[in-house]
Amino acid sequence: MTMQCRFIPIAALFVVGIFLVTAGCVRENPEDLISPILSPAGPQGSSNATMVAFVREAVAFARVNGRETALAEFSNRNGSFFRGDLYIYAYDFNGTTIAHPVNPEKIGVNRLNERDAKGNRFIRLLQEQALNGSGFARYYYLNPVHNNTVEAKLGFVMKVDDTWWLGSGIYETE
Questions:
Q1: Which helix (H) or strand (E) holds 82?
Q2: Domain ranges, residue 11
Q3: How big is the chain by its Cα radius of gyration, in Å?
Q4: Which pLDDT score is estimated for 147?
Q5: Using CA atoms, how far apart are residues 64 and 58, in angstroms rounded to an integer?
Q6: What pLDDT sits at residue 173?
Q7: For residue 41, pLDDT beyond 90
Q8: CATH number of the domain that 140 lies in?
Q9: What is the pLDDT, as a whole number, of residue 171?
Q10: What's the order of all strands across the beta sheet hosting 97-99?
């Protein structure tokens, strides 16, 4: 086989590969297929896309640095995962809080059956999304920035591994 004949199949594979990547048929990370619910920014300014990126960053941090280091960082109100109106919280799949920078008294508490202001088992709703890999859940919670009034909150969660998950949330205007 001549050199030119060997080059043609390799070139053809290269062209097909480029086509597949640019067509969106091949993804390095299947979680890239998640399409965030796009809406205006919450009252404190964070957008849903910003929240999704924030949670993904936290999951990557946890996977690189390990559970204990990550949980300490996520529970630190002065840490790198407390930014403006966004912060990271962590739960195990039993529904127990394992990191929370705003409510550290909840660490170690199983909240799986705790209800929000409208009677929804909000941790269970978030956990169900995490069991699927990632997703959104809407619930109603006291907003400390608005005199503890009950407001709609959109949470985004993502599974770290089979034992725990992370999330963040933004208050929404209705």
A1: strand 82-83
A2: 1-33
A3: 20
A4: 86
A5: 10
A6: 66
A7: no
A8: 3.30.450.20
A9: 92
A10: 97-99, 89-92, 164-171, 149-159, 134-143
> The whole model's pTM is what?
0.73
Distance CA 17, CA 20 (A): 5
Reduced to 3 states, what is the DSSP secondary structure of residue 154? strand
Q: What is the pLDDT of residue 31?
A: 37
> In angstroms, rounded to a whole number, what is the distance separating the alpha carbons of residues 69 and 83?
18
Q: Is 47 exposed, middle or buried (0-12, 13-18, 19+ CB in 10 A)?
A: middle
Number of domains in the chain: 2
Task: Give the length of the chain.
Answer: 174
As a whole number of angstroms, the distance between CA 131 and CA 134 comes to: 7
Residue 15's pLDDT is 43
- Domain co-membership, 126 together with 47: yes
Six-digit token string for 15: 């062209």
The 8-class DSSP code of residue 104 comes to G
